[in-house]
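Q: Could you write out the predicted structure for this multi-component system? I'm mainly interested in how the pieces pack against one another.
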Amino acid sequence: MILPQFTYHKAQSVAGAIALHKRYKGKARYLAGGTDLIPLLKLRLSEPAALIDLKGIEELTNVTRRKGFLIIGANVTLFALRNNPIVKEYFPALCESLDATACETLQMRGTIGGNILQDTRCIQYNKSLEWRTARGLCFKMGGKACNVVPNAKACFSNYCSDNAPALITLSAKVKLAGLKGERTVALEKIFSGNGRTPFTIEPGEILAAIIIPLKKTKGVYEKLRVRDSMDYPLVDAAVSVTGNMARVCIGGIGPVPHLYLLKNMNENTVNDAAERAYADAKPVLNTTLSAAYRKKMANTLLKRAIRRVLKEGGR
Amino acid sequence: MKTMKVTIEVNNEKSVLQVRPYETLLETLRERLALTGAKESCGMGACGACTVLVNGIPLRSCLVLTAEVDGAEITTIEGLKKDETLHPLQEAFMEKGAVQCGFCTSGMIMTAKALLDRNKRPTKKEIIRTISSNICRCTGYKKIIEAVEEAGKK
């Protein structure tokens, strides 16, 4: 498939990339691994005037320990992170989610920053230009309707990152660098709730690093998919436990992952969280599986994940 | 649109090329360098038929811009044989009958080569895990796995 025309720049520093982005007045996009972006360009779902490659920026490729935190540069590949000894030892939920992301070859190219900022997906949206526009433009294409739910008021596209739910259970924060300087926000706060523009990131802002408190956790990641080798999650559940407290995150349904805190893990609190996950999950028929099944699986995966973490204690 | 000067070393041969900034590595290999071993199948990074090694790492060349790999060493299926001797993986694929229609074969072999380069004797489980990056629509996976196991022993 042929790419649309654009110019290509390789940035040497974060500041340089931001300045370059400004010059294109919102018509440039940042490129990391490209495993999400290039297919979007090929399908003409995005037609930037320029791509600004961030892979040459040295500071984005390091993993460092500092003052009780693990700081992961956004350009660290999923494969490198999966094999990182600290991640293996401290963050089993993240280790499992990295393992479940796409396939090994794509893990070697895809970056953790790109994985977090991947666009939301919908069975009616991620299609060729001719296919998807035959039914009229949907919200995500800039239209005024949803091609899945008649008379819908918003876009129901799904956020399909495997690793963001796991990172949210680990209380991860993201460092964003932009024209107005740097800011650090909790990962769960970067979601807008609107499938059309899923993130609250300002134009030109770069996700520079992911910051995780360096505390040993137990954890697991559970994922529903049709094909085990490389599919996106159709629902997923991550759990990280410290002491008797658990943080559970359900993703893959709608544009926002949902976080649940269990102060005390016992049968009642687990069932209660599973009920809440079931109530919060509002899937529509925009994947290959039925909405009713995915809704049930939000409840099931949450319980399954907690059962496994209690039994195995994570990895 | 202005073209860009890119220097790449493909199969130990240096090439200086003027490429379009929106040109994929797969297009460059197939259309400029006539290396048609890497195939375009899905064009979306899902199937792995276009896998080549870039600085030893298996990448889907349909998702990589040629401009991104300026200065890199690239190995394609055409570069595996040494003089007139085939790579053990190529031999094993023939011996085990791991080639059916052949469209996935070069991608399978390049993915497997990257595995054998970092792990000389992978277990069957490791082979399956790595090979699951690539799709064979003839579904001849069993013989492909056997061939990689065989090549690992050589």
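A: Regarding packing and overall arrangement: Chain A has a mean pLDDT of 96.
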